[in-house]
User: Which sequence fits this backbone?
């Protein structure tokens, strides 16, 4: 069942459950940070409305910098602002930032330990009809190996707002990942959020597997868990809202509880959430694992729901992965 | 604040630039790798900055109101290290640690390693954008400091440079002064054979910058150009400093082969000899 301690959305599984894009949470969080801290500034590369930075830009025009279609410039200007005491948020589509400006961010923000927040939008195949050019599906793989970077992937718009605010209040470079389409609201304003903590959203009495989900894919994982329960298979579903640093203490207790893992992410299976967990578990407590995500392929244009099915990332694929992995679990 | 530039002061600056060149040769031969041409060519400008132009305090490198000096083409850092050491940021003997393990003097400058560098550089085309960020912050905070950004002609092949050029003009950043080391060489040959950049002054003027062209090995002209740049109310300025790469060492001057390599022991001895002869000349002027 949904973990009652986390005060999650009680209407989540109902047909009229509210939906909203995680990027909207970014815009609301950035606006609130702007009201609270005069040092918060924002930059955008000609995608102000679609990254929701326009909420901040309209309220604080003197603290907003339009750089034009120039992602490298945006990153390095932000570094200069951060070195001078500002807290810059840069936003664009993740394929362009941190995609196109990867080395600029590496040198001027990460190696400099500049206090810049990088918001990568339109992440994953959820970007839909725009096609694979605009669907960032390697962004986490491309930044995860950077030392001293934190990576946050909120599961819904409410958590998106909380993650943005927490990022602004936390010193150092942080990558935040957002999606374009409206997705179910899983949490409530009362749900706890903390950078570096993973949370069990679906609990069971005798779980045989743990599903680790990232971003809006958490919804599909929760639906899968609910259906599996009716089939007599109990699982845990964990919201991994911080991909780096991984919450290793929580991972250890989860591994001991279940003995089988499934990762679920709208990202290539190489180098993302699943890769991070597999690397950790191989060292600490080797655990059979299945990986839901893009299997070393680009996606294409289509409606998000169609793409999720075609690329085998939906709830039925998650259920099948659970059934497969528990066959390999030493506990059975 | 900068003092008046009289004959005595100018002679002192020339002397210091010569000393900086000697330190560069000594550092490079000890390191066994690194760049020779650019650092020697820019010794006059660095000396003018650290000993006359900059409002700075070597004992308090993070002072809020200091002028910012950003070195975008980080590979010429030996000249920056030498000038910083000579002006009191750290002991001169530390220059011998350049490019060695556990050193604060990284092969390309890393601001987390050594106070006073302002930022990390090496990968080209990124310094001007960072300088812009600092200039914007200075304007927002109503600070009167200047942001000086040193760039190379080769790095103008990077698209990021031109992104920054457009942004600085759009935002009328008159607290930003760029100094380009126009020495016409890069790793693979002359800049005009690799990728022609001339007419550079006209390019900048058409991008709505104030552009001043000078002899970058003439300290007096450079200092005067900086003073003129500060009078421009509504535009950023670029000072196109024509320098001689390898300046002061006859067999290195204007030879692009010296862009990215250090002298060996014998070459270093010859170079130091030549520089000491020049030093005597300056003193007897």
Assistant:
């Amino acid at each position: 069942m949904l973990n009652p301690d986390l005060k999650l959305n009680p209407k989540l599984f109902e047909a009229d459950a509210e939906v909203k894009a995680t990027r909207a949470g970014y815009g609301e969080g950035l606006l609130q940070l702007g009201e609270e801290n005069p040092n918060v500034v924002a930059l955008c590369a000609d995608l102000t409305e679609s990254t929701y930075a326009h909420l901040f830009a309209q309220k604080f025009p003197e603290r907003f910098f339009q750089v034009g279609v120039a992602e490298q410039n945006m990153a390095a200007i932000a570094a200069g602002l951060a070195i001078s005491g500002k807290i810059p948020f840069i936003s664009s589509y993740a394929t362009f930032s941190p995609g196109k400006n990867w080395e600029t961010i590496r040198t001027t923000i990460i190696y400099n330990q500049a206090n810049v927040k990088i918001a990568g939008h339109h992440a994953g195949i959820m970007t839909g009809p725009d096609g694979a050019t605009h669907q960032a599906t390697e962004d986490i793989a491309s930044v995860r190996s950077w030392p001293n970077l934190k990576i946050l992937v909120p599961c819904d718009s409410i958590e998106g707002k909380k993650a943005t605010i927490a990022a602004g209040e936390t010193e150092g470079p942080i990558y935040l990942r957002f999606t374009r389409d409206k997705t179910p609201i899983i949490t409530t304003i009362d749900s706890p959020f903390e950078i570096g903590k993973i949370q069990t959203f679906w609990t069971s009495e005798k779980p045989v597997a743990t599903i680790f989900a990232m971003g809006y894919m958490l919804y599909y994982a929760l639906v899968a868990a609910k259906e599996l329960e009716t089939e007599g298979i109990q699982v845990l579903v964990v919201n991994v809202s911080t991909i780096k640093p991984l919450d290793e203490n929580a991972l250890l207790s989860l591994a001991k509880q279940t003995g089988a893992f499934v990762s679920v992410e709208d990202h290539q299976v190489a180098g993302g959430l699943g890769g991070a967990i597999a690397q950790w578990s191989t060292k600490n407590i080797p655990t059979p694992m299945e990986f839901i995500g893009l299997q070393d392929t680009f996606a294409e244009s289509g409606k998000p729901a169609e793409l999720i099915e075609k690329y085998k990332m939906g709830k039925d694929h998650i259920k099948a992965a659970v059934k497969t992995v528990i066959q390999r679990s030493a506990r059975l | 604040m900068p003092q008046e530039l009289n004959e005595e002061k100018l002679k002192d600056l020339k002397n210091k630039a010569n000393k900086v060149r000697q330190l560069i040769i000594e550092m490079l031969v000890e390191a066994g790798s690194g760049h020779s041409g650019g650092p020697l060519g820019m010794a006059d400008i660095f000396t003018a900055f650290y000993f006359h132009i900059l409002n700075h305090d070597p004992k308090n490198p993070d002072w809020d109101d200091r002028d910012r000096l950003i070195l975008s083409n980080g590979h010429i850092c030996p000249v920056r290290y030498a000038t910083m050491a000579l002006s009191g940021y750290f002991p001169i003997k530390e220059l011998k640690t350049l490019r060695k393990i556990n050193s604060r003097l990284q092969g390309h400058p890393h601001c987390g390693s050594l106070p006073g560098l302002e930022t990390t550089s090496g990968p080209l085309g990124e310094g001007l954008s960072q300088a812009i960020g600092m200039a914007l912050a200075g304007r927002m905070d109503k600070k009167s400091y200047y942001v000086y950004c040193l760039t190379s002609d080769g790095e103008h092949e990077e698209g990021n440079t031109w992104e920054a050029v457009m942004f600085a003009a759009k935002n009328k950043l008159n607290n930003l002064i760029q100094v380009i080391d126009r020495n016409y060489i890069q790793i693979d040959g002359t800049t005009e054979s690799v990728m022609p950049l001339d007419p550079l002054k006209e390019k900048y003027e058409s991008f709505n910058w104030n552009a001043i062209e000078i002899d970058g090995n003439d300290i007096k002209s450079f200092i005067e150009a900086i003073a003129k740049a500060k009078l421009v109310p509504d535009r950023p300025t670029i000072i196109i400093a024509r320098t001689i790469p390898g300046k002061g060492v006859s067999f290195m001057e204007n030879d692009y082969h010296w862009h990215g390599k250090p002298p060996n022991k014998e070459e270093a001895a010859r170079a130091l000899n030549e520089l000491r002869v020049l030093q005597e000349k300056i003193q007897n002027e």
Summary: The domain at 19-184 of chain A is CATH 3.40.50.970 (Rossmann fold). Chain A touches chain B through 29 residues (CB under 8 Å).
